[in-house]
Amino acid sequence: MDEVMTIATSRYMLDGNTIFIGTGLPMVAAYFAKATHAPNAVLLFESGVLDPQPKYIAKAVGDSRLVSTARRVSGMMDSLLLLQGGHVDLGVLGCAQIDKFGNINTTVIGPGGYAKPTTRLPGSGGANDIASLAKNFLVVTRHKPRTFVDKLDYLTSPGYLTGPGARERAGLLGGGPIAVVTDKCIFEFDDNTCEMVIKSIHPGVTADEIAESTGFKILIGSEVEQTVIPKISELEILRNQIDPEGVYI
Q1: Mind listing the pLDDT tens digit for each residue in 29-58?
Q2: d(Cα 163, Cα 238) in Å, to the nearest integer?
Q3: What residues in the chain have per-residue pLDDT under 50?
Q4: Which of 12, 50, 86, 232 is most buried, judging by how many CB atoms fall within 10 Å of its CB?
Q5: Per-residue confidence (pLDDT) for residue 158, from 0 to 100
């Protein structure tokens, strides 16, 4: 399903967008978008690298492979200032936990809270900045019960917080999450309730399987469809041009 997730994610990346991306499938999706339908998209990395054209896939956002071909190399401060200035159209994030409103936890897991967690995670990095300030963001993650939870163990990065109007009341400048892409389906968000709604289901997956892997009641859109299967030509670009060493795919 890696190819399905990657290409599905890339479809949210539009030509001319400035896209703030991280390591992993978001990076592959962004390169794929530039190689196909969004050649004028500008890629931005938290490390301060702007719009690289690397010959080989980078293994981290600070990988030196990004630097030699970048339009500009500065630092983290400049990347975050671009967010604060409203110049980032789309951010792409991962998560350890996510709830029905698209709120994200990447800080701690377990009942002990921040002070005594079962598992301590890397934390926010730039994720809170992206979720708070990008015009929109989407999440890419594996679909597991421990990931899709009714209540986060810790709120690291804001989705729609408690529902309609909550982001505005909190003074957040960004528009919030537009989609969650998993290895089972694609969620988008209801305009009225701000809750996740299944937009499409991947080939070979059932709604029951999605429900079993989700810790809150799933909502199914009125026009739910099957996720578009990647074309042979698209797979060839992914495997031969974008990630020939199989670093992420």
Answers
A1: 999 999 999 999 999 998 899 998 877 888
A2: 37
A3: none
A4: 12
A5: 98
Q: What is the C-alpha R_g of the chain?
A: 17
**Confidence at residue 120, expressed as pLDDT on a 0 to 100 scale:** 96
Q: Are 186 and 198 in contact (CB under 8 A)?
A: yes
Strands 136-140 and 90-93: parallel
Q: What is each CA distance from 202 to 13, 49, 72, 102, in whole angstroms?
A: 19, 34, 38, 20
* Domain range 2-240, CATH architecture: 3-Layer(aba) Sandwich (3.40)
Q: Which two tokens stand for residue 47?
A: 């490390």
Domain ranges of the chain: 2-240
DSSP for the chain? -HHHHHHHHHTT--TT-EEEE-SSHHHHHHHHHHHTT-TT-EEEETTSEES---SS--SSTT-HHHHTT-SEE--HHHHHHHHHTT--SEEEE--SEE-TT--EE-SEESTTTTTS-SEE----TTHHHHHHHSSEEEEE----TTTB-SS-SS--B-SSTTSTTHHHHHT--S--EEEEE-SSEEEEE-TTT--EEEEEE-TT--HHHHHHT-SS--EEEEEEEEPPPPPHHHHHIIIIII-TT-S--
* Tokens (6 digits) for 68: 């030699």
